[in-house]
């Protein structure tokens, strides 16, 4: 027990940022992570309207909800509730190949707290500058205006902004799917917390839980920008979150890397 307490102290001491002092980041093993308190990632949601002004709404009595048969996912607070629930479930059971637990020990909450979810939501006209929240991850629901129509994007390691594209249109068309949306956010958070695609040739976790070639039909990529020449979708029965496909699971190496990033 003494050893365990000492170890925890050292982990947090190494994770603390001391001004003017360079400290090598802690790289906890999964056994060590299992003994740490959960880490909660706080999310702020940003909803950008379509060109005609249509947007997710704040009020259950809004005419848009009424016109769509009471479609509750058009309400920002309800949508956020489902996404948080799905993300928390996903990260509780995501870990593969670690018999003691499937829990990544990562949790999700709203930056403004659970009691008033709309305080964690911001609404915009199309083209209006975003007002990102500094102390959390910013999840931006918006329309994709370029070519290629990705489902979601982030700029990579260290980013705190995640874009989710064209979901309002799918809800207006009748979809009630939040499972896919949480899956997309989880994948992009993985990038933001330093993870590469499983089919990236030089993925630092390659060989520990997956083979990049098996993740994309024998064609790994040298970047995180997408599939490349071969469509990697469904490339592995492992259903890894950082591959393309079901995106359910994380390997021990990937969870250790995310925690090392968070404790840096
Ligand atoms: Zn990706």
What does this structure look like?
Strands 1, 2, 3, 4, 5 and 6 form a 6-stranded mixed beta sheet that branches. This protein has a domain at 26-196: Collagenase (Catalytic Domain). It has helices at residues 2-15, 30-35, 63-67, 76-92, 167-172, 179-192, 252-262, and strands spanning 39-48, 106-110, 121-124, 137-142, 152-153, 161-165. The chain starts with a helix and ends with a helix. Helix 4 (76-92) crosses helix 6. The chain is α/β, with parallel strands linked by helices and 264 residues long. 28% of the residues lie in helices and 12% in strands. It binds zinc ion. The site of zinc ion has 4 residues, from helix 6.
Portion in beta strands: 5-15%
> Structural class, please?
alpha/beta
**Radius of gyration, taken over Cα atoms and rounded to an integer in Å:** 19 Å
Question: Using DSSP, what is the number of strands?
Answer: 6
Distinct bound molecules: zinc ion
Distance between the termini: 25 Å
CATH topology of the domain at 26-196: Collagenase (Catalytic Domain)
Q: Could you name the CATH class of the domain at 26-196?
A: Alpha Beta
Mean of residue pLDDT values: 90
- Helical stretch tally: 7
The helix content is 25-40%
Shape verdict: globular
Main β-sheet description: 6 strands, mixed
Q: Using the 3D structure, state the CATH architecture of the domain at 26-196.
A: 3-Layer(aba) Sandwich
Order of helices and strands: HHEHHEEEEEHHH
Please mark out the parts with pLDDT under 50 across 5 or more consecutive residues, or reply none: 1-23
Signal peptide: 1-16
GO molecular function, one term: metallopeptidase activity
Protein name: Peptidase M43 pregnancy-associated plasma-A domain-containing protein
Keywords: Signal
């Amino acid at each position: 027990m003494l050893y365990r307490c000492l170890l925890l102290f050292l982990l947090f001491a190494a994770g603390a940022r001391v001004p003017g002092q360079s400290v090598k980041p802690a790289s906890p093993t999964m056994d060590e992570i299992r003994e740490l308190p959960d880490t909660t990632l706080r999310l702020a949601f940003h909803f950008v309207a379509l060109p005609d002004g249509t947007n997710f709404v704040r009020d259950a009595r809004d005419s848009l909800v009424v016109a769509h048969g009471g479609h509750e996912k058009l309400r920002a607070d309800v949508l956020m509730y489902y996404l948080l629930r799905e993300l928390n479930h996903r990260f509780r059971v995501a870990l593969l190949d670690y018999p003691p637990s499937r829990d990544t020990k990562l949790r999700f909450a709203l930056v403004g707290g659970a009691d008033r979810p709309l305080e964690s939501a911001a609404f915009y006209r199309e083209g209006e500058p975003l007002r990102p929240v500094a102390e959390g991850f910013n999840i931006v629901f918006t329309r994709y205006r370029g070519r290629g129509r990705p489902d979601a994007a982030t700029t990579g390691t260290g980013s705190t902004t995640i874009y989710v594209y064209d979901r309002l249109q799918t809800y207006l068309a009748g979809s009630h799917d939040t499972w896919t949306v949480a899956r997309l956010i989880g994948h992009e958070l993985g990038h933001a917390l330093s993870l590469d695609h499983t089919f990236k040739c030089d993925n630092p976790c390659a060989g520990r839980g997956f083979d990049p070639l098996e993740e994309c039909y024998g064609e790994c990529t040298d970047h995180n920008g997408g599939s490349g020449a071969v469509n990697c979708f469904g490339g592995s029965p492992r259903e890894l979150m950082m591959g393309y496909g079901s995106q359910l699971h994380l390997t021990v190496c990937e969870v250790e890397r995310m925690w090392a990033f968070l404790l840096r």
